[in-house]
Amino acid sequence: MKIVIRGTNWIGDAVMTIPAMRQLRRIFPNANISLHTRSWAKGIFQDADFVDNILSFEEGSNSLQTMSEQARVWRANKFDLAVLFTNSFQTALLSKLGRAKKRFGYRNEGRSFLLTDPIEKPEWKSEKHEVYYYLNLVGEIESDYLGSRRSATVSPDVSLNVSDQRRRDARDILAAAGVDLSRKTIALGVGSTNSLAKRWGARNYAGLNDLLRSELNSNIVLIGSAGETDVSNVVLDHSRRKPIILTGKTTLAEITAILAEIDMLVSNDMGLAHVAAAVGTKTITIFGPTNPGTTRPWNSEIVVREDVECAPCMLRDCPIDHRCMTWITPQSVFEKISNLL
Fold it and tell me: How far apart are CA 112 and CA 167, in angstroms?
């Protein structure tokens, strides 16, 4: 049996699908399972034990051409089952054009006619953690094939493997950047690519950096994508004791391995927080406009948030005073870090 999973389009969402993919492997232990996803996801899943192949693609400027190329790959593989973790009309169309025999996905954007098995979105979608949304879909597949729905109620396992060689390479990167590997290392994820409102603030992170350096004598490393370099530089400018900047200097595969080797990540609600928790690193996530009940890193040790009347608002820009974030102090975050370490 050949199965294709159409992966999600954001790093955090991709990590939250791991329990569902593990359940697919349990249901179909002898199947050949391919993950069809954007090329960046290789950096997360290259050592995964629940998929056999990664079919990656780049989103082209001509979406019709990209769709045609992807469908050609699907047809060549002759998939028996397609599992769509995405909710878009486009991916349902891909599954149809790719001629997967059975096509499971949630009813959304009028795409039901493209699926052989359209699934109703659960009523609890906005109330339970997102991992259960993906597990529920796999539960419907399990019900169809085996007559049971164990997948929908299983205790989620988001763990990710990172090979020994990648870990050794990560230590080399850290050492080359000036990290003293004999001391504790804490990474700060100071950006967020899809929402300014999710950012705690560069001055706050600078204050936290100074506390960590002076009180715990820790290595502090700033991490993130190239698009988050500017905010990392602002943190650097406002820090009395300068952190090491790796923001924009590593691939996703490298930063995944680095996260597996350090002692802790403190960050905004961002994709790398999910990765850190998945590789087993202590994680403290600062939440403001988004809902930690549904999208926090599954294995996150601590969520930091202020109980303000307007949160979670889910807005990408705050129309008032951003109190959900500005009321959180560097000292309060430092105390949580100190207690956890």
Answer: 44
Dump pLDDT digits (tens) for 224-281. 999 999 999 999 999 999 999 999 999 999 999 999 999 999 999 999 999 999 999 9
Residue 17's CB is within 10 A of a number of other CB atoms, namely: 26
Q: Which residues contact 285 (CB under 8 A, 6 or more apart)?
A: 266, 267, 268, 269, 273, 292, 296, 297, 300, 302, 303, 304
φ/ψ (deg, to 5) at 283 = -135, 130
Confidence check: pLDDT of 137 > 70: yes
Contact 10, 271 (CB under 8 A): yes
Confidence of residue 76 (pLDDT cuts 50, 70, 90): very high
Q: pLDDT, tens digit, for every residue of 88-98? A: 999 999 999 99
Q: Which candidate, 127, 130, 132, 122, places its Cα nearest to that of 152? A: 132
**Mean pLDDT, rounded, for 49-73:** 86
Query: d(Cα 43, Cα 36) in Å, to the nearest integer?
Result: 14
Q: What is the mean pLDDT of the chain?
A: 95
Q: Which residues pair with 118 in a beta bridge?
A: 105
- 37's enclosing H/E stretch is strand 32-38
**What does 114-178 look like in DSSP terms, one character per residue?**
G-SEEEPPPTTTTTS-HHHHHHHHHHHHHHHHHS--GGGTSPP-------HHHHHHHHHHHHHTT
Alpha-helix residue ranges (DSSP H) falling in the chain: 11-16, 18-27, 42-45, 63-77, 89-97, 130-146, 164-176, 202-211, 229-238, 252-261, 271-278, 292-295, 323-326, 330-340
